[in-house]
Design a protein that fits this description.
Layout (H helix, E strand, L loop, with lengths): L18 E3 L1 E3 L2 E3 L6 E6 L2 E10 L3 H20 L2 H17 L1 H12 L3 H21 L6 E3 L6 E9 L2 E5 L7 H12 L3 E5 L5 H13 L7 E3 L4 H10 L3 E7 L2 H14 L2 E5 L4 E5 L5 H13 L9 E7 H16 L19 H17 L2 E4 L3 E2 L9 E2 L2 E4 L16 E7 L2 H9 L3 E2 L1 E5 L3 H10 L4 E4 L15 E2 L17 E9 L15
Parallel strand pairs: 1-5, 8-9, 8-11, 9-10, 11-12, 13-14, 13-21, 14-19, 18-19, 21-22
Antiparallel strand pairs: 2-3, 4-5, 6-7, 7-24, 15-18, 16-17, 20-23
The structure holds 2-aminohexanedioic acid (UN1).
Amino acid sequence: MSGTVVSPDTQKSRSGAPQIYNNLIGGQWVKAEGGKTFDSTNPANLDEVIGHFAASSKSDVTRAVDAAAKAFPKWKQVPAPYRAEILLKASRILETRKEELATLMTSEMGKVINEARGDVQEAIDMAKYMAGEGRRLFGQTVPSELQNKFAMAIRQPVGVVGLITPWNFPIAIPSWKLFPALVSGNTVVLKPATDTPLCALMLVEILIEAGLPPGVLNFVTGRGGEIGMAIVEDPRVKAISITGSTEVGKRVAGRCGELMKKISCELGGKNAICVMEDADLELAVDGALWGAFGTAGQRCTAASRVVIHKKRYKEFADMLVKRTKELKVGNGLDPDNQVGPVINRSQLKSINDYVQVGKQEGAKLIFGGNILSEGELAKGCFHEPTIFGDVKPDMRIAQEEIFGPVTALIPVESFEEAIAVANGTEFGLSLSMYTQDINRAFKAIEELESGIVYINAPTIGAEIQLPFGGIKSTGNGHREAGTTAVEQFTEWKAIYVDYSGRLQKAQIDSYDH
Ligand code: UN1
């Protein structure tokens, strides 16, 4: 398989002035037709421009879909185990370049370096897992009710798929969508978040280097409003997979519904850790600290609520505040820092606006609450890890996704109340229960209304070999990762082979004894 096309721009040293990075269409790195660009900047230092990227419009999307549609007939003929070889090779390149990619990610997205390594590792894991899927892509064989008749179902690729990815896991989440889509035989138009286009571009380059033929993967950067909907609207795009805000996801899903397209949404969360009176409190505090403030709270799975039994509430709150005080906030490239910046100024403002909402609602601000602007921090988008106490379950800060380092402590009287409070939002992604009681643990597994449940572990930290996704307003019935990932990217075809040599009528002819 030939087709290695490497961006001439990214081959240059990244140490000098910021480079211009183009779209990848049909194996060629090309400028947006309008010639316009936008900048990606470092959230730890907004003066640092990471690169200039193509500000694409509808016509660029049309060209990308042209290329993907043209490449599809040949790509779907490539045996899945060979498609998988490319993913395996990509996993090896990712491993070799892990440190470089992690450093780049911290500079472009802000997450602290150790977490950036984890993000790249998640893509490596997914590449290996989906490479294995190339030799599975299981179908079904079932008995026929008639003699001399064979019944089976196979998976086929859906065609051109549109992938719309967020900035918070800028390599991992594109990998969750790209790898199952590609191994299943689809061709792709990928639109990454405008805050993190370089991370996604690096992943694309690696797949090209691993041997992906021209046109199989097309990459278009630009504003969601402008090009995201253009991907959705193009009649040749047969399926969309999007991770993003609930607001955008609902709009995209609505339109896909009208157009009868397959659509999988991974949207907001308002995840909770429940801490019962019998919990190992040290362990629960460790979990809450990591769940609430890891990735500066910018995970769909972040623990933005902690529901605590009244008997241990004060003790827990004191311990959490003490530990939060010790967290070091700053540029994620410094390995001593534990909390990096948030993604951009508008997100910083939105987070701080929620802090004001919490105060107005009468929640007790027990730690943090401020935008950090001392010294070097003034150049970036840093927010103090923030804890509200005595939060009522129906307050906005306990109901709405904040997507920042803010958590709400909610006291409850019982296990049953904890479950009811945990379930009492419009979302259903990740919920967790800390208890030493095995009966309660299993009751929680049964009763918690979410796609992911943790026992004695925080709400973050899903592994790629199990389904990832949520219920209620978090998703629309799909899951990423695990064996379920290929569902969105394949169509079932049921096949009956009648080798009786005569007309046999199902449901009408009966078996003759
Ligand atoms: C997200 O929260 O947007 O489970 C993705 C986790 C990570 C993935 C999170 N493996 O926390």
